[in-house]
Amino acid sequence: MTSTSEPAPKLTLAILGAAGGVGRRLAAQASAAGHQVRGLVRREEQADRLRLHGAEPVMGDLTGNWGAVLDGADAVVWAAGAGASGAFEAIDRDALIAVVDVLKDRGPRRLIVVSSMGVDRPEQMPPFLSAVLRVKAVSDAHVQASGLDYTIVRPGGLTDAPGTGQIQIGMPAPRGMIARDDVAHIVLACLSLPQTIQKTFEVVGGETSIAEALGKV
After folding, report:
1. Do 40 and 47 form a contact (C-beta atoms < 8 A)?
2. Which residues fall in a coiled-coil region (predicted)?
3. Which DSSP state fits 4?
4. What count of other Cβ atoms lies within 10 Å of the Cβ of residue 68?
5. What percent helix, strand, coil does the chain show, rounded to 5?
6. Which terminus of the chain has a smaller tally of CB atoms within 10 A, N or C?
7. Up-side HSE of residue 8: CA atoms within 13 Å toward CB?
8. CB 173 within 8 A of CB 117
């Protein structure tokens, strides 16, 4: 068994949604931690920004050609979402399901999905979120049934405020906000925490350190 005092192994990490708010923060944090990061982007300006974070951009599109970003990966993070485009079925459902099916066939087995709070209770969430939450419920369930070494992180409302490193995890967690910086930190921490495998949890800002909160998942 690996000693807890030993450093976490360095990984080749593939990020789908690397140009988004959580994805680009994760790329920067993972690169700074010594991991090799490959991120899927659609436009050259997104690629330039990713390079500034120390990551390698891979051009592609989640509705088309995205498989190359997985080459050589030890772990995959899904940080994508349709956002303002409204293409929830194409991105949040169909594309994630397609990624899961490819990973089942070719690997890697480690997958972390950034989903959303309220996926399992859309009727209790704000009406404008209900449609996308119902779509995410389908893809989250596909992940959970895949047999992959998955973790599904379901954050509350996302902000661009600096991360505090203090969170609250629950299933469910109380409705609240969380910094994208902290969500990226949580994802990065989960990569080295086997107790988070095959776990789904909600998370908002709180008063417990990320390390302590994840240690109780």
Report:
1. no
2. none
3. T
4. 12
5. 40, 25, 35
6. N
7. 14
8. yes
Amino acid at 6: E
Distance set, CA 87 to CA 43, 78, 80 (Å):
18, 16, 12
Which distant-in-sequence residues (6+ apart) come within 8 Å of 117 by Cβ? 125, 154, 155, 156, 157, 172, 173, 175, 202, 204
At residue 184, φ and ψ (nearest 5 deg) are -60, -40
Length of the chain: 217
- Beta-carbon count within 10 A of 180 CB: 23
- C-alpha to C-alpha distance for 45 and 41, rounded to whole angstroms: 9
Half-sphere exposure of 79 (CA within 13 A, CB side): 31
Q: Which two tokens stand for residue 150?
A: 């998955």
pLDDT digits (tens, 9 = 90+) for 126-153: 887 898 999 999 999 999 999 999 999 9
Cβ proximity of 30 and 192 under 8 Å: no
Could you tell me the residue ranges of all domains in the chain? 12-215
Q: What is the pLDDT of residues 157-168, one digit of tens each?
A: 999 999 999 999
Q: CA-CA distance, 148 to 113, in Å (whole number)?
A: 12
Tokens describing residue 7: 């450093």
